[in-house]
Design goal:
With 72 residues, the chain is an alpha+beta fold. The chain has one helix and three strands; from the N terminus they run αβββ.
Length: 72
């Protein structure tokens, strides 16, 4: 959906910073999720938004991780 992800510009994703600490952390998290060893915090969540956003959804909040709220 257009405008859904604020970091996408003109339909393109920014270049990934391969080799950076942030990239290594993201890859580690992705591996844990894919192999099933990651802790499941936001069970059955289908939607999320940052805390500063007033989405107005009538959904059940299932988790908060950092600055993001998750709903089903």
């Amino acid at each position: 959906q257009r405008g859904q992800f604020s970091f996408v510009r003109r339909g393109r994703l920014p270049a990934a910073p391969h080799g950076s600490a942030a990239w290594q952390k993201a890859m580690s998290i992705a591996r844990k999720v894919l192999d099933g060893s990651a802790e499941r915090v936001a069970h059955n969540a289908l939607f999320f938004h940052a805390r500063g956003v007033s989405a107005g959804w009538h959904a059940t909040q299932v988790a908060q991780i950092g600055n993001h709220l998750f709903y089903r």
